[in-house]
Amino acid sequence: MTPGPAPAEPLALGRTERVSWSRRAVSPWMLLTAVVAVLMGVVVGFVAQPLAGALLALTGVLLAQLALLRVVVDQRGLTVGTGVLGWPRWRLRAGDITEVSADDISPLQYGGYGIRMIPGATAVVLRAGPGIVVTRRSGRRFVVSVDDAGTGAGVLAGVVARADRTRC
């Protein structure tokens, strides 16, 4: 078994200091596929089969919703939302987190691109590359691919460390 990534160096935070870090991620190929599906759905709906066209267009809209991602770290913890509506959304409270790290994420580790729920982990993977890896008190991991993951992991580790200090 290979060792996991080293825990992130926590950002030093004062007791009352507020902090926030956020990034957006987009999967261009998923977005392009969504646009093509919507256009094909419109064409199929008018030319051949309205129901098939509507289903194809709806599939494209849902795919576009999943192709956009917003990751926010603040004094409450980690929030990850997809699409314009920010749904589905995951909120991990700082008190529920035991370890934070940044690592190179491979979609193959988690069964592919998209939202993946595998034994022991939930992953939101839009692309290969940097990502934030969180271990929860339950032992379950949460993984999200996002640029500048090292900074985000450091800020989150600082928030978690402060939450641990105030809980004691």
Helix and strand string, N-terminal first? Answer: EHHEEEEEEEEH
Write down how many β-strands occur, each being a DSSP E stretch of 2 or more residues.
9
The number of distinct helices, counting runs of at least 4 residues, comes to 3
Distance between the ends = 34 Å
Structural class: alpha+beta
Largest sheet: 5 strands, mixed
Unreliable parts: none
- Strand composition percent: 25-35%
Question: Tell me, what's the shape?
Answer: elongated
Q: Measured on Cα atoms, how large is the radius of gyration?
A: 19 Å
- Spatial ordering of strands, largest sheet: 5-8-9-7-6
Helicity range: 25-40%
Mean pLDDT: 92
Write the layout of secondary structure elements.
Blueprint (H helix, E strand, L loop, with lengths): L19 E7 L1 H20 L2 H17 L1 E7 L2 E6 L6 E5 L3 E9 L8 E5 L2 E5 L3 E8 L4 E5 L3 H19 L1
Parallel strand pairs: 7-9
Antiparallel strand pairs: 1-2, 2-3, 3-4, 5-8, 6-7, 8-9
